[in-house]
Specification:
- The protein has helices at 2-13, 18-26, 82-85, 108-117, 119-145, 148-155, 159-164, 167-174, 178-188; strands at 28-33, 38-40, 48-54, 56-63, 66-74, 78-79, 94-97, 101-107.
- It is built from 9 helices and 8 strands.
- It is 50% helix and 24% strand.
- A hairpin with a 2-residue loop joins strand 4 and strand 5 (66-74).
- The N and C termini lie far apart (40 Å).
- By secondary structure, it is α+β, with helices and mostly antiparallel strands.
- The strands form 2 sheets. The protein has a 4-stranded antiparallel sheet with strand order 1-8-3-6.
Length: 189
């Protein structure tokens, strides 16, 4: 069932012949990560791509004994820690399951093989990364142009974010303290 969800996800993005899609799926495996466990630890070198079948993950770094959450992703997202994977240098991030999370895992060597062997898979990769870059640019611009309250109001359209991400992590993503987030939430009620 999990693999079927990934197959559907791929088919929504690009068209692949049945045998090409079967080849992609043959390179994948399912991994279930318990809540609180790390998928990737700061200092490791990323070597895999992930598709979230169910659950959610957060990217965070630690500085001066403080965790800062920078990114959260949920089901139907395909990602990797790109700043580590392609230069093959140690990541600065920890990637942690915020709830039990089922992942489809694809090793970098297999992804590279699929890029070389299936032209439509390159299109898949391009579309995924274009979408990811657009989200990152939006997040950056939101920090530069919107108030904390306006950024929080945008999160209101993502109920999963509000339901599954603890207040201190949500405040961190917004770039504010938990107390400031509480004031904003009380004001909006």
């Amino acid at each position: 069932m999990e693999v079927e969800k990934f197959r559907e996800f791929i088919s929504e993005i690009v068209y692949l012949e049945a045998q090409e899609l079967d080849l992609v799926i043959s390179k994948c495996r399912l991994k279930v990560i318990p809540k609180g466990k790390l998928v990737l630890k700061a200092g490791q070198i990323a070597s895999q791509y992930y598709y979230i079948v169910r659950g959610g993950l957060r990217f965070y770094y630690e500085l001066n004994d403080r965790e800062t959450t920078t990114w959260v992703c949920f089901k139907n997202e395909f990602f990797t820690e790109i700043s580590s994977l392609h230069p093959q240098k140690p990541t600065r991030f920890n990637i942690q399951a915020i709830e039990e999370t089922a992942l489809i895992v694809l090793d970098k060597k297999d992804m590279d093989f699929l890029y070389a062997y299936i032209p439509g898979w390159e299109e898949f990769g391009r579309k995924i990364w274009e979408g990811t870059v657009a989200r990152m640019i939006d997040q950056l611009l939101n920090f530069q142009t919107l108030s904390a309250e306006e950024r929080y109001r945008r999160f209101l359209s993502t109920p999963e974010m509000l339901q599954k991400v603890p207040i201190n992590q949500l405040a961190s993503i917004l770039g504010i303290t938990p107390n400031a987030l509480s004031r904003i939430r009380n004001k909006i009620k």
